[in-house]
Amino acid sequence: MSQYASSKIDRPEPGLIKWSPNPANDTFLHVNLQHRVVQLYEPTGLAQPGAFDYKKSLKYDEIPPLTTYDWSPAYPGLVAIGTASGTVDLINLHSDSSSHLELPIRITRTCQAVAFNTGTLLAVGLERVRNDQCLKIFDVNKLTSLDPGVAWTSFEGSMNPVVGLEASISISSTKFFENSPQVLVAGIKNQGIRIYDLRDPHGAVINYQTKCNNNLAIDYADQNYFASSSLDKPGLVIWDRRATSRSTASRFYNDAIDTDDLPWGAALNVDKAIDVKDANFQERGSLIRSLRFCRDRAGLIAVLSRTGQLKVLDTKKEFIPAEVKSGDGPEALEVRRSYELDMNYAKDRKDDRIVSFDWLNLESPALTPRAIVLRANGAFDILEKPSYTSEHIYKMIPWKAPHRGLEVGGSYHSFMQFEATQYPEMMGSLNIDQAFEDKALFGSNKDSINVVVQQALLSPVPATDPICDSEASTEKLPELFNATSKSAEKLRDLRKYSKENLEISKSQQQPSIKDLDRSLTDMSLNGNGLPSNRQLHERLLVSTLDTKGFPKEAQVILDHAMLLRSKEKYLFDYVANRDIVADDPWLRELWDWVAGAEKAASDMGMVVQGIDFSYLGVCNIWTGDLGVSGMSRLVADDAKLPDATAWEQCLQEMNKRSRQPAYDGVATKKLAHRQAALWICGLGKSTDKHFSDYAKMLPSERNSSWYTMATAHALFEGNFENAVQILKSASAEYPELYFVSLALQLKNQGDKSLSKGHLDFDDAIASKTDPYLRAISSHIATNDWENIANQESLPLRERTFVALRYFDDAKLTRWLEKELRNATETGDIEAIVLTGITDKLVDIFAKYVEKFNDVQTATLVLSICSPRYIDDYRCRAWRNGYRAYLQRHKAFMQRTKFEVESTKKSKRAGKSTPTIVSPSRQIALRCVYCDAEYELSKTGTGVIPSASQGQTNPLTSSNPLMANKINAGVSCPNCGRHLPRCVVCLETVGVPRSDKPELSPDPQIRLAARFPTFCLKCEHVLHLDHARLWFARHVECPVPECRCRCNFRANPELNYH
To answer: Has this prediction a pTM greater than 0.90?
Structure first.
């Protein structure tokens, strides 16, 4: 065969393999090059990856060393073998060595190609030599007509070629066309490709100039096309033999030749059909070892490389409009898809490397194309082209949002639901592929393909979910997960489930989770063995960030957490928001601060001297920063940006208005700043609220942390007596706290001026579970507030409170800058106490959204001040993205409420016009008679527009009630026509009815009576309740003269609702 017409170094050692070229014969041939043996095999059963049944039928020993070979499609036992010495040997596999004949070649040289046609012709391609043809055609009819037992020795020397072509050129490859047995194509070395018609007495040929003249392969399903490759290039070219002249080609094909660098006659040029390493270019031999077209699929070609890569290219004809398509001209091809049949070819597997292959002949196109391969270790294997339905199953599953089964409780990540009559059509191809997975395709026990296909097409709709997540945990979800309807409780249960069942596997399989920005197992800056408060928050969010391993019931909640929260009214009711995100204490703390800031800003409470201080943070108050768009906070017309003196005066007035207690902290030159900052730091914080949360906890879940927290708060405020009293009251329940209270009493009674070092405080043995107990111990031992302010295991709000009370002005400024910088880098939303809802918070939320995808919270928080005080494109992008998210999930009510409420929030203090431009009018009233549009808002004053201009309206002058009808939307202000009448009760729709359905005890009747229904065909109108009653018994319109079948159902089996 021409596919292997290369040097001996390139020759695969185990041999060559070829499936029968006759589709009627289920056999394959193996040429063993090591032992010089030809063996014939017969498949006997399964033929699928990992399972191939076959048996040996025949064996022929002592074949000469070959360079090429071919197998006759007309005579199953006839094989031609070309050798390097120039001889061409014919052997009969069904006989002994006496059925051997050597064809005469006048001048000895290498035989590079042999090819049988579907009759008795044999083409032999030889190496170039002077004074002799290099393409010889032999007729082997004499051999095929003999009886099997007759020896061929009598024909020795008498089998002369009947046709000789192409003198003094080298033939590298040749093939006959099956649909034209007298036509063959040959590759001319270093010149091109030529097509010969042996019936033409003039010897005319079609010539294509190319260097790709090896490995010729003809598309059996569409024999207008054939392919070839080059020895030193990794590409291939598919040719169209209809390309004879430009006049017969279409305009599209000629354009492709002129503009796409396509050689004349080519239909497709693939520059890199295989992967080629640099080392391959340094070796001798062809890069592409073999090309084969599939007999059962048009345009499906496989390419085998020297390294064992077997790639399949699925090609199709380019689209050409019918009006410009030429009758019998060439057509260009394009690659629809490429596949790797052996994904492990790139690995260092010398023994498993593919050295030869061929396509199987299958009985039906319903079977997926598959190839038989010979590996370097001599084993046979079957490789199957990925089915067209291999992706069918994924396309039938709604992987991406919105998930249509969320509302009705459908199975998540499963097949789309089809009617029983539609299921066979939609899923038939997939069911057929599955039906043949364990069916024998060959042998006496093979199943009838038609029967298997018919049974597969009649497959019923599966009663259970056919999709199984192999990576999901088998552990059942907690019972409370299904019992509760609140998203916060479900998320809390799922995080507990993740910790108990998935944490170990995820940490092993996904190490990237550990590297969000610092390792989640890293300790705080002091190396005290206690994770920072931010790291604890990230651990909480990461536990459900990746849904891998969760059952489907859990994945549907995790993938739609934002949607579920929005349906629980996660909007601008900040107290309600705190309960909706009860699963996340850090988000609860955020909404606590926002609620406090909202309360402070109500009734212009934060407007001082014409400047709006609403939603500013500690850093803004301390540094005198109104934000990038500070001018937008000037309420009064004569107000201007304050200088340092004016800023302090404003803060003094703010402190007086909010009745701030006297400051008793460290000495400072910015007293008003500290008082205001301490007030801002404590917005929304309440000890009673924390105690109520503690009281709601189950006794088994309670610990001493609430008491140590309350003690630490009292200690931070400088109230030692209250701190000691809290510990004493808790010592009855938690005796270990009694010793802490004693130490605190001794500390309070001693000399408070003693500096750090009075006691030996060891970080290594300090509390590793309770950050508040650690802070208390640190203060008792060192009396150093800087240790507590830098203890990152404490919430940032409390550390900020400590810094405001106990740091001098310079140290406080440096500390605030450091904490703000760290929060911006890590996306710590606790820093809202530092930034407020200002431009700096946008930077923090940008990192937070990048890490945890919670665009919902970012949008809701920032919508409070964006765009009225914040002008940042990221806020607009998040807002538009959140609106689009709600719209995608058909949460139209939630999206509308968000738009309305956020538009209201955009009003600046003292202004009535929102800064968000309201969307254009989406609903308008249009008269169906005169086609005039109008708005009720423009006619609701009791005066028709034409009357406002001093003109007399003829409609109102003739009927004094017309103005009321127009204002009610019953009559058109342009033509005066009123709404149509119900064709059942003959009363005008849109006005109160005489039967008073609103008094009915049935809520469905009360609701339906308010809506009219229109037939789009006859345009008659009915009240909805009347339409239901009428069409429950009739199909035609109620109007006697109308023959419209308003209630006609084209497909009643679809069960309309």
So the answer is: no
